[in-house]
UniProtKB/TrEMBL annotation:
This is Ribonuclease. It comes from Sphingomonas aracearum.
Length: 314
């Protein structure tokens, strides 16, 4: 039976949907403005729709209410969270709203809303997340290599879309069908949304291409990934898929700041070290710089473990 595993971690919250010892979905939540948040704001730039929320966050609102001058107050709802990208971030998107201000649902509320059982994990308990393959999924998200029975996928995150490239040996039709199932499972597992491109092997004839598309549809439906729109597989083996974009995918979160992601994963491991804990821990210069920006992370580790860990640059 499927069950959500949830951890309130240091610097991030985590959840995984697990069934029959298989990790079906992996989710990480970082602090920040959440989708579904309704907040008061002031219009800063009519031309771009830039607004500043009461908490100081910025978003782009569309449409801008008619007659609202710059500096004017309005209420907005966040419909897409900020999207991290290397070197810059896309601002959150919002729409005008008449609702009362309220925070958007956090990760725990969202997984509870699925109606499935939720188990909250503690550091002193068996590491059920890791047993289900949490580390392997994080590795998939960061290096993009996904192996399936007949071949392998290469997942690449770009500013325009997430791309999946299929590699494997002939015969090509069963390879492409198996790859479609693997891509659908990966999209669900990593919460990939927005524009998605899939480069399948080139197949001759309409029927084989339709079989590949049908296998992808079935895998997405099995993972509850709807609604979505897609093209047919064209003569060159390419298919494009669109899913509603509300928050960053797991690869986008991890690749936007690899040092911070690695540090949070390290803190998770340090939490689980039995007494006397880890008084000294080597880290990279990039991780040390991240710790300097987030001193509350090492403070929280000390509070949880009772050990003050000294992080040393390796």
């Amino acid at each position: 039976m499927a069950e959500w595993l949830y951890e309130a971690g240091i610097g991030e919250n985590r959840a995984a949907l697990v069934a029959d010892d298989r990790l079906l979905q992996a989710r990480i939540e970082l602090p920040g403005l959440r989708a579904g948040t309704v907040a008061r704001a002031r219009l800063r730039d009519r031309g771009t729709g830039l607004v500043e929320l009461e908490g100081g966050e910025e978003a782009l609102v569309a449409p801008v209410p008619a007659g609202l001058p710059e500096g004017g107050a309005l209420t907005v709802e966040i419909v897409r969270e900020a999207m991290p990208e290397r070197g810059r971030a896309k601002r959150a998107r919002a729409v005008p709203s008449d609702a009362a201000p309220a925070p958007g649902p956090d990760l725990l509320a969202r997984i509870a809303a699925t109606g499935l059982s939720v188990r909250t994990l503690r550091p002193h308990e068996p590491d059920l997340l890791e047993q289900a393959g949490w580390g392997e999924v994080l590795e998939e998200a960061t290096d993009g290599e996904i192996v399936f029975g007949r071949g392998a996928l290469r997942m690449s995150v770009t500013p325009a879309m997430t791309l999946f490239d299929v590699d494997g040996a002939a015969p090509l039709e069963p390879l492409a069908v198996a790859a479609a199932t693997a891509v659908g499972a990966a999209i669900v597992r990593h919460d990939v949304t927005g524009s998605i491109g899939i480069d399948f092997p080139t197949l001759e004839g309409r029927a084989p291409r339709q079989a590949v598309a049908a296998a992808l549809d079935a895998a997405l439906a099995a993972g509850g990934a709807g609604p979505f729109e897609r093209t047919a597989v064209n003569g060159f083996g390419f298919l494009q898929l669109i899913r509603r974009r509300t928050r960053p995918s797991l690869p986008e979160l991890l690749l936007a700041d690899p040092a911070a992601a690695a540090l949070r994963a390290l803190l998770r491991r340090l939490e689980r070290v039995p007494p006397p804990g880890t008084p000294r821990q080597p880290v990279t210069r990039a991780m040390a710089a991240t710790l300097a920006r987030h001193p509350e992370w090492s403070e929280e580790l000390a509070r949880r473990t009772g050990v003050v860990t000294r992080f040393e640059t390796d």
